[in-house]
Design a protein that fits this description.
With about 160 residues, the protein is mainly beta. The protein has a 4-stranded antiparallel beta sheet, with helices on one face. Strands 5-6-7 form a 3-stranded antiparallel beta sheet, with helices on one face. It has helices spanning about 70-80, 150-155, and strands at about 5, 10-15, 20-25, 30, 35, 45-50, 55-65, 90-95, 100-105, 110-115, 120-125, 130-135, 140. A hairpin with a 6-residue loop joins β1 and β2 (about 10-15). The protein is elongated. This is DUF1854 domain-containing protein. It comes from Glaciimonas immobilis. InterPro entries: DUF1854 (IPR015005).
């Protein structure tokens, strides 16, 4: 799959091993490039770079929507493959209201349990978003705590 971007004038395609190849407007190819979001949680669809394997930025993209559909699909597939930030939809239960405590949650990727070491592992982000780190360094996101059900908000309030 090869695409040409009039806005950015580059091509992006997959090689036989499923890795991205970036071709610059002057025809120079870069193997194994990676899309990197500037703000993966607070503005996931805004501001991303395509970077070479050595970390060199090859192109800056203001909005994912600026890309042609097939290019955007390649970028989104690569981001989904590399990023793992489950979104909490409901807090089912906690083992204790003191830390450490074991949380059981429903996420966009299924049910999960994790240990919250301390209240400092819950960080407020822009708006009503929260980022929760478990004891293994896995991050869970609550995009808008106002969208949680009442019972989940009540549990969360005891830790904030």
């Amino acid at each position: 799959m090869t695409t040409t971007m009039p806005q950015h004038d580059f091509r992006l395609r997959l090689n036989a091993f499923g890795r991205l190849i970036f071709t610059s407007p002057d025809g120079e190819e870069y193997q194994g490039v990676l899309p990197v979001r500037a703000f993966p949680i607070s503005a996931a669809d805004e501001g991303l770079s395509i970077v070479a394997a050595n970390g060199q930025e090859l192109v800056w993209i203001d909005h994912l929507s600026d890309l042609a559909d097939d290019t955007r699909m390649l970028v989104e597939q690569e981001l989904a493959r590399r990023e793992f930030i489950p979104e909490i939809n409901q807090i089912t239960r906690v083992s204790s209201y003191s830390t450490p405590s074991i949380w059981t949650v429903a996420t966009n990727r299924g049910e999960a349990s994790f240990t919250l070491k301390g209240e400092e592992d819950i960080r407020r982000l822009a708006g009503a978003a929260l980022l929760i780190a478990d004891n293994h360094g896995v991050h869970f996101v609550i995009r808008d705590l106002h969208n949680l059900d009442k019972a989940s908000r009540k549990i969360l309030d005891r830790f904030l």
